[in-house]
Queue: 2 jobs
Job 1
Amino acid sequence: MHSDTVKLKIFRKDHGEKSPGRHDEFEVPVTEGMSVLDAVNYVVENIDSTISVRWNCKAAHCGSCAAEINNYPRLMCKTRIDDIGAEITVNPMGAFPHVKDLVTDLSGNFEIDRNIPEFKPKKGIELPWNIKEQDVTRAQEFRKCIECFLCMDVCHVIRNHSSKYIGPRHIIKAAALDMHPLDTVDRSVSLMNDKGLSLCNVTKCCQEVCPEHIKITDNAIIPEKERAIDKMYDPALMLFDKLKAIGKSGSR
Amino acid sequence: MNKAIKKYIPAEFLEFNPRLYAFILIIAIAVIAFFIFPVKELNGYIDPFYSPTILVLPFVGLYRLTCYAYRKDYNKHIFKHPLACPVVESMDSKKREYSGETSAIFKIENMHRYFLYAAIIILPFFFYDVYTSLFYTGAFVLRLGSIILAINAVLLTLYVFSCHSLRSLIGGRTDCFSCLNGGTLRKKIYNKQSWLNAHHEELAWISLIFIIFVDLYLRGLAAGMPIDFTFMVIH
């Protein structure tokens, strides 16, 4: 650390306020291992208790403290002050409706989640379900998601271009269901046609900001695109799948 | 903008974009150079751009253009959608029109797998070129150029076999490996390919730079530069 204090600029705007908002500056004494969340909490506890900030576990497990730190979407609790320098700007996530100061309204995400076709298991499977490890390892990666929505915040399609695209977080939810060995629903074509999957231009920013290091683009978005292409653009594979299905029904 | 135009020419191509013009200019100069100054074969070395024939170049070019690794690069650095991930440096804005991969031209990206099939068919020719360069006099001659051609062939193979579309065909589209005959082996191949796939971007760039280096090396030889060495001759 270069100095004993750090200059913290926190975005301030009240709920429903018409102005574009402002940044309040605070000098915060630095302690060893201090995170940006610690610094914000220092301000709330010692200087200005009217600042609204959402946080919970302080261990990068709940995803509540997601914000834009020096314009880069990160978890405040996982970002150490000594990693970023003496001047730190903290903004709320700009892709979501603003509530107050650093708090944004994330409820739209849960609405999108509800519109993803739910898990539908194959009929007639005996209980308890017997699933081999090799069949679930891919989908398990997506279960690490802590729903911080940093991937949604960094996505330029959501921020600037289209509300039609459901976003990386929801693609990994759909991919986790699609890759489940007992699931019978295919979500890829509806993702492509109705949920804006083809608006993603694979710039991998979502993957870059994910605090859980989920390979969102490589392991969820691209596989879902490829699955949709199987059904929409690949006549050879479509014929192969049809013949396989006829073969299966004939052998029964 | 006229809707009919928009359907066929995406907004990304209608913006004033010097980066795009520079890219098109470089490609145009390269293609013209290939035809005006061809170095197809020299002392048993066959230029990879002309192997097996320069007519396959559009397929190879389209394979690279529709590749997921390069899509990231040109969407960022040519079209600036976005230029960078930090939100203020993205150079993207609500004012700019955007079509993603929905417009006619970008829809060709969905054909990536067909160009993959073409690339897999073309790959053995590069290894045949290595063989030709080793035995072109009738005896076995190991020269620096042959080693360079061999490295090029291996890099291109690694690049093609680390493809995302191939990953999907090997196992990405399979939900239940244990339900298939030989599913465990397939999952193992899928895992190995996934490891390779994680390096797809590096391989894409290394193989591209190397193939250009091979072309320049052969052109250097054709210009009479003393840059080839013979290590071994077996009669």
Job 2
Amino acid sequence: MTESDVLLKVSDLHGWYGESHVLHGIDFEVREGEVVTLLGRNGAGKTSTLLAIMGILAKRSGSVTFRGTELIDMQPRHIARLGIALCPEERGIFSSLSVEENLMLPPRIADGGLSVERIYDLFPNLRERRSGNQGTKLSGGEQQMLAMARILRTGARVLLLDEPTEGLAPVIVQQIGHTIEALKNEGFTIVLVEQNFRFAASVADRHYIVDQGKVVDMIRNNELEENTQKLHDYLGV
Amino acid sequence: MFELLGISPPVLMGQLLLGLINGSFYAVLSLGLAVIFGLLNIINFAHGALYMMGAFVAWMLLNYVGIGYWPALILAPIIVGAFGILLERTMLSRLYHLDHLYGLLLTFGLALIIQGLFRNYYGISGLPYQIPEVLSGGQNLGFMFLPNYRGWVVVASIIVCFGTWFMIEKTRLGAYLRAATENPVLVGAFGVNVPLMIMLTYGFGVALAGFAGVLAAPIYSVNPNMGADLIIVVFAVVVIGGMGSIMGAILTGYLLGIIEGLTRVFYPEGSAVVIFVIMAIVLMIKPEGLFGRPA
């Protein structure tokens, strides 16, 4: 891996909620077009890592670079404008907006986003639900799809997906897996936070193991077999 | 039938019209409060003072610069809105991370200062402002006499209220506003400049107050206390309608103006308190307000 391939590089990232120190020096890097997961137990600091990259966890130190630009002192809106988009764990669908308004809300920040037609091809359920409906009247799975769909339009090339499969039926999880594959083929770079290890294994290139606010290991997806025992120890599954 | 009750139709219609006019001011002012509260979570106690400023700016434009009513109807809200933006940038924006109460206290203090300054320079006797030429006179509708200017106030307020409603509920700009009202952090993380939106929203809400002030100038005398008298009623209207609902603020404004007018016909002694009685009842039965969502 040469330095120039690295799109997003996180080094010695610390983060705090008020006085509570939750990230203790996160290190990882993501190359263009890769799907990388952050795996770990509840409370390990996976979500906080995404929020710190995005600048939403404002009290942070260390370094986050995107295409060589340092993000650590930037506001979330400026980070977003560079082409990084977040699909938050709680999905963040706006109840006072219709499905279509939710989809069209994030402003375009660059060329190269998916067309609305392509998005509806990826998420056929949303096409059926597009008109009239209040965003939060959708089912959990549809809300998750909407939360992913709306950041594909904007031209952002790095997607931070926070537990997209949480609480969803297996058939929907499968559909989201296919979507992530399709996005990878479209050239999106994806950082995926997951608890569902089997899902993570089905879509990702590499896995970073997060424990107590630190990255403790990295496992390539094709080396999973020989590392199964190690993973079980890390994740306690 | 009205005669049986000892009430003549012209009296009834006259009070209804008066109620509708008061309702127009309630609607425009509570709309501004609702827009501001939605995004800033601040109860803008300075709203009455800024309404008064709107009337004074119109009076000053006329008497110092010779700019008449129609340009003032546009200019005064812009001037008041710009003043609001100045307040937001220099003071209010420092309070967003604190409890709502601090914003309320600050705007209450600002209201007292603004009113005090105007009282100091212009006294409390009130300054006259002529009805514009085109709108002087009135129409005889058969059952009652409708002064043109009062008709215009009702029409103008309806246009502004529903224009604002349309902008917020039906346009892309409004979608940003509604989304930022729900979750400003996420909207910021999409790349939207939320602090700028907040500033412009406060400016717009305050400009609505300024607009109402200009509308009021030819009807009520222009005096430093005109806002303080009105704003207490408007707060009751907002409580009844429910904080943060745009259509709720508008409809409740007109409705309560009319109820107040009817009370003046059927039970004049109650007209000064009827709105507060309704407020107490609504708070007991539906504390989130008629159009509010449960918190």
